[in-house]
TrEMBL record:
Keywords: Coiled coil. Signal peptide: none annotated. Pfam families: PspA_IM30. The keyword Coiled coil applies. This is PspA/IM30 family protein.
Amino acid sequence: MSLFDRVSRLVRANVNDAVSKAEDPQKILEQALIDMQDNFIKMKEAVASAIAQQRRSQKQLDNNNREAKVWQERAQLALQKGDEDLARQALMRKKGLSDAATALQAQLDQQNGQVASLKKNLMMLESKIAEAKAKKDMLKARAQAAKANEQLQSSMNSMSNSSAMAAFERMEDKVVQMESRSEAAAELAGAGLEAQFMELETGDVDYELEAMKQQMLGGTAATETQSLPQGTTQAVPQDSTTASAADLELEALKKQIENL
């Protein structure tokens, strides 16, 4: 294979590939339908021209037959008048017209066949055009649907590979982290609040314990007072009296705080 053939084949292959990629089904269908309609118009004109020629041939054939009949009658008249030479000339003119009529008849038969074929092809083309119109609308809708689906798939693929989707995923992770920190803070806050209530409850227990101790100390002092002889007083240690006064003052402060 020569270099020229190889280059020529390569060029034709590239051109065909480029044309194939550039073809838009909707535009191609529209153009194909326009071409079919143009052919229909041309064929319709051809049928009209053939019919007109057929009618002219038929008219000429009728005229020839009519003139041939006239010359036939003239030949008979001349023969009746005894003019044999004139009758012969009339028959010769009649023969010429009859020969022309025979040729016209053959031509007319051929034209009749052509007109019938053209009419049939015209009807077939008209039917194909109607079918093509219906198919064009269907194929156009299918092409639009396929194109829309292709664009959708392309958009989905680009979205899955785009930085925008990655940003959404990063923000989703960040929100999850924020929610986790919020839940942890809530748990810590709940634990601190629980500790505060436990501290308050412990304070109430201490207060109740102190009250019980004071009650017991008061009961012991009364018993010792009753056991002493009349007119005798029990000596209270200075430190114990000071401690009891401090405890009472502390209890009074606690009560004030509770009443706030």
